[in-house]
């Protein structure tokens, strides 16, 4: 039984390192394309909330991003008080490679630039 626990503990430590690295990569990709972005929330998990001052993620913009193969969700979708969170999106990164993260952020940037 101790051996299994040792393996599980080691696996959890390794996965924390993997997700921490992916999270940092996502933040770097975001700030490279969107220097004004703010990252909200704790440094744990497999997703983060990014806030884009002055940019509204409308249903139309989100649809364009989704059609390009990138699935993000507006925090507005989850908010109890509507109309206050259109400038924030949830970005998951757990199942993505660094290359996929880079491509996804480039898709978001292209969609945003196209709408401006």
Describe the structure.
With 116 residues, this protein is an alpha+beta fold. The protein contains three helices and four strands. The protein has helices at 2-33, 59-67, 98-115, and strands at 38-40, 47-51, 73-74, 88-92. It has a four-stranded antiparallel beta sheet with strand order 1-2-4-3, with no helix packed on it. The model has no long low-confidence stretch (mean pLDDT 92).
What features would you highlight for this structure?
alpha+beta; Aspartate Aminotransferase, domain 1; 4-stranded antiparallel beta sheet; globular; HTH_trans_reg/aminotransferase; PyrdxlP-dep_Trfase; PyrdxlP-dep_Trfase_major; Aminotransferase class I/classII domain-containing protein
Concise account of the structure shown:
The termini are far apart.
* SSE string, helices as H and strands as E: HEEHEEH
> How would you characterize the largest beta sheet?
4 strands, antiparallel
Trace the largest sheet across and list its strands. 1-2-4-3
C-alpha Rg (nearest Å): 16 Å
Q: What is the overall silhouette?
A: globular
Structural class: alpha+beta
CATH architecture: Alpha-Beta Complex
- Under CATH at level 1, the class stands as Alpha Beta
Helix content: 40-55%
pLDDT averaged residue by residue = 92
Tell me the count of domains: 1
Q: Could you please say which CATH topology applies here?
A: Aspartate Aminotransferase, domain 1
Tally of DSSP β-strands: 4
User: So how many helices?
Assistant: 3
CATH homologous group name: Aspartate Aminotransferase, domain 1
Point out poorly predicted stretches. none
């Amino acid at each position: 039984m101790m051996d299994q626990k040792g393996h599980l503990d080691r696996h959890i430590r390794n996965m924390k390192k993997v997700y921490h690295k992916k999270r940092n990569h996502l933040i770097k990709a975001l700030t490279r394309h969107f220097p004004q972005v703010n990252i909200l929330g704790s440094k744990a998990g497999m997703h983060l909330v990014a806030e884009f001052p002055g940019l509204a993620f409308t249903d139309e913009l989100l649809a364009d991003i989704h059609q390009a193969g990138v699935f993000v969700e507006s925090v507005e979708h989850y908010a109890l008080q509507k109309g206050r969170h259109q400038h924030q999106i949830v970005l998951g990164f757990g199942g993505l490679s660094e290359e996929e993260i880079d491509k996804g952020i480039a898709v978001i940037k292209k969609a945003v630039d196209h709408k401006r």
